[in-house]
Amino acid sequence: GAPMLRRAMSTAMRPIYGRIHAKVTQGLAPTSLVIKDESFMHAGHSGNPSGDPDAETHFKVEIVSPKFEGKMPVARHRMVYELLDQEIKDGVHALSLKTKTPAEAEKAKTAKPL
Description:
With about 110 residues, this protein is of the alpha+beta class. About 45% of the residues lie in helices and about 20% in strands.
């Protein structure tokens, strides 16, 4: 019946995912942005008591942005948290952040053994 339909729609829309993507893109003009929704891995845990795999509670966000130049990781994270303040209030429990400057991302690439 109806609940099934609502569920299919919520999956298609991913409102929080979209908002994170839009805000980070606007706020940090990233050269690379990877957002992984890991909520399904935490279904039924305390952060996601409903156990709904579509709850959008846990995200891993990897951002490469020139705006991070000269900033400590904790300051970079603060920039991201401030951007996503509303999403966190709306129920994002866990943001796992990886923040790099383009130069750091480049260095990480070349450092990898072939």
